[in-house]
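re the bet — no i am not wrong, look at it urself. input seq straight from the record:
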Amino acid sequence: MHYTLHQLKVFHTVAENQSITKASVELSLTQPAVSIQLKKLQDQFPIPLTEVVGRKLYITDFGREIAVAAKNILEGVEAINYKTMAFKNQLSGRLKISVASTGKYVMPYFLSGFLHQHRGVDLNIDVTNKTLVVKSLEQNAVDFSLVSVIPDKLQLEREELLSNKLYLIGSTLINRKPSKPIRKIFEEYPLIYREQGSATRNAMEQFIQTKNLPTNKKIELTSNEALKQAVIAGLGYSIMPLIGIKSALQQDELKIIPFRGLPIITQWNLIWLKSKNLSPVAQAFLEYIRLEKHRIIQENFDWYEKY
């Protein structure tokens, strides 16, 4: 047999995702490229690794055993690479972070310099909603999480990074009569929400309830980017984090609508379990953040602090 590490990695990713499409996204490959590598690996075994029922891909019992073996091989190779780095006195290992979805506009700026300094560090970053972020932390599946609302049921340490500001926004395509009260927005137009479990959704609902605002029409979307595009297109209004709409504001696609009680201001926090024994990589990253965060904010978020 002459299968390659690349083929094993592709198959392991397909097996984990139960999908060629999802695996291609995770691996940054085209779907045909994933299918070709999967076929090359399959050609070396007389027993099927996968099967398609209807239009859904399934991993066979034999395929699951090969996926476990592939994972062990890939982890072994990874360990060899880390040991090589360690003998060369270079920081090496894996840094695992879960990020609340809007935090994808924040976290990369706090990672970039650290990863450039330490080429032996690999990064796993999962961008999802607040509920799943907290779950990954609770299960000790990550080193750190980035959230704007601190979970109250976990014993945590935290490092404050950047303020999180939420404004009422609308499309520049919608021309409202200046004489109409802003409150009429909530009666005449749909409000566009994030999905249940989103911190942005929770903040928006709490604000609407506190102000006793009418909400007769509702649209729900499952990503910040989809929500932003819906508002730009004029489907309705929303309360959104400023951090995710910079380009739309600059291009005059969105406008901030002044409203009493807004912006809602929270804080982006890097959090970790108090009981967690941080790895050398995680400890080095935390020290980097504490030393460099003010410079990073000044260099990359100067526009943000002006609002």
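see?? The radius of gyration is 23 Å. told u. also Residues 163-266 form a domain with the D-Maltodextrin-Binding Protein; domain 2 fold (CATH 3.40.190.10). so pay up
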